[in-house]
């Protein structure tokens, strides 16, 4: 059993070494850094120091995450506004479907 495992591992390792990984220049040119206009060709010190974290808009969020938080906040604000408006206009009275008196 142990010998067959060793043979299988050696065969897998041999295929991995012979197969290798290839990368063409066309693939590298097509890669863009998310959230910016920089390509892999622009690796100068000035370009890197200009924006150290191009994919982040603040310390922990991407632009999409920030937009989702803003949308949630606006949605919650409007729902709370309409709830408060109902209380001001006295629309939030209890239902009178109960046979017991409501204090």
Q: How would you portray this structure in words?
A:
The protein has 103 residues and is mostly helical. Among the domains are: 29-55, no CATH class; 61-95. It is built from 4 helices and no strands. The radius of gyration is 31 Å and the shape is elongated. The model is unreliable at 25-31 (pLDDT under 50).
Task: Quickly give the structural class.
Answer: mainly alpha
Q: What is the helix/strand order?
A: HHHH
Helix content: 40-55%
Oligomer: single chain
Largest sheet: none
Percent of residues in beta strands? under 5%
Distance between the termini: 80 Å
DSSP summary, beta strand count: 0
Q: Average pLDDT across residues?
A: 73
Low-confidence stretches: 25-31
Rounded to the nearest angstrom, the radius of gyration is: 31 Å
- Shape descriptor reads elongated
Number of helices: 4
Give the secondary structure arrangement, pairings included.
Blueprint lengths: L1 H18 L5 H6 L14 H6 L12 H26 L15
State the gist of this model:
This protein has 103 residues and is mainly alpha-helical.
